[in-house]
Amino acid sequence: MQLALEWAAKGMYTTAPNPRIGCVIVRDGVVIGAGHTQPAGQAHAEIQALRDAAARGHDVRGATAYVTLEPCNHHGRTPPCSDALVRAGLGRVVAAMVDPNPLVAGQGLAKLEAAGIAVSSGLMASEAYELNIGFFSRMRRARPWVRLKAAASLDGMTALHSGESQWITGPEARADGHAWRARACAILTGIGTVKADNPQLNVRAVETPRQPRRIVVDSKLDIDPDARVLQGAASWIVAATGNAEKEARLRAAGHEVILLPNASGKVDLPALMLELGRREINELHVEAGAKLNGSLVREGCVDELLVYLAPSLIGDAQGMLALPPLQALDQQYRMRFHDVTQIGADIRILARFNQPEE
User: Fold this and answer.
1) Strand pairing of 235-239 and 256-259?
2) Residue 291's CB: how many other CB atoms inside 10 A?
3) What is the rounded CA–CA span in Å between residue 66 and residue 23?
4) Omega before 17 within 30 of 0, i.e. cis
5) Potential cystine with 314: which of 26, 157, 236, 351 (Cβ 3.0-4.6 Å)?
């Protein structure tokens, strides 16, 4: 199963909106076939592993398949993998997890068992879950897993009052941040960041076969059509009020304007999360300013903070999150540390508010 997870990770940047799945076929302790899920519409991991075994001249009848997620049993972009495993005559299938997709949800394993194949699940489930945390979120909550990234000094400052922020953290942390960008389906920022920094908001520090979708929260549709975040690929601009002339210009350039107003005339952030789930966004990576960061946290839209802390002190400057003062300590936004790792000279902290199943 560890090897199957390593194969699944090969699809880190390419399988969305499908989950990252690996499959390893074993006979007598020897791997005779392996594969991972290809881009949407192409072969799933089980099919790749069966093809690999056939190409190597192996007969898979009676062999064991280790797969990082329950084989699908429905017709989507591709035929059911469970049918292919039955036809191939596997003797046993071990799945790390049951598929949360309601179209599968145990039915794939049930079909295999009905065909006389021994099945089990739960082996290395936590590792498989982490690999597909966004897919599980979308299946269970109809919204993506939202990861908010910030780079700060040890006293929690992300930029000087002048806006200068390059660079608080070191090159290793910046490259690591780009790797997290690359694994996301989309990167979200706010109009304040676009105006202040004019970022490209793409993946540059690591190699990736595809760039995530770029999304800008821009309540009044103030964005400059020549902003760098709008160059090179279609972006989504989420607004609360329309502007027919600017919308037409943006659409002519290939971008999409999404109107999602709330009662206060701002963008309805929880509604945006559901809209992104509908658009099959599994993981959403947020790199925004303190105001939007604070709004996302206050409205319960953030699942995880990805914070890089530099061993430095800046003093009075801009913070990570604009949150209102609390009246009592029992009102704290409580989290738990999921991972703490040193990256170059800096510390990377992953802290979580909640899990999809909670």
Assistant:
1) parallel
2) 14
3) 6
4) yes
5) 157
Contact yes or no for 277/139 (Cβ under 8 A): no
**What per-residue confidence (pLDDT) applies to 77?**
64
pLDDT digits (tens, 9 = 90+) for 24-52: 999 999 999 999 999 988 889 999 999 99
Element (H, E) at 274: helix 269-278
Q: Where in the sequence numbering do the catalytic residues fall?
A: 46
- Taking alpha carbons only, the member of 120, 68, 118 closest to residue 92 is 118
| Burial class of residue 173 (count of CB atoms within 10 Å of its CB; 0-12, 13-18, 19+) | buried
Give the predicted TM-score (pTM) of the model: 0.91
pLDDT digit string (tens) for 228-273? 999 989 999 999 998 899 999 999 999 999 999 999 999 999 999 9
Could you tell me the CA-to-CA distances from 130 to 18, 135, 197, 278, 342 in Å, in that order? 15, 10, 32, 21, 20
CB atoms under 10 Å from CB of 349, counted, come to 17
Q: Greatest CA span in the chain, whole angstroms?
A: 70
pLDDT in tens, 142-186: 999 999 999 999 999 998 888 777 789 999 999 999 999 999 999
* CA dist list (Å): 192 to 15, 197, 226, 321: 32, 8, 15, 14
Residue at token pair 């990805």: 306
The two tokens of residue 267 are 């963008």
Give 356's pLDDT tier (boundaries 50, 70, 90): very low
For residue 305, give both structure tokens: 């903070």
Two structure tokens written together for 5: 């997870």
- Between the two ends of the chain, the Cα-to-Cα distance in Å is 26
- Cα–Cα distance measured from residue 309 to residue 290, given in angstroms and rounded to the nearest whole number: 16
Length of the chain: 358
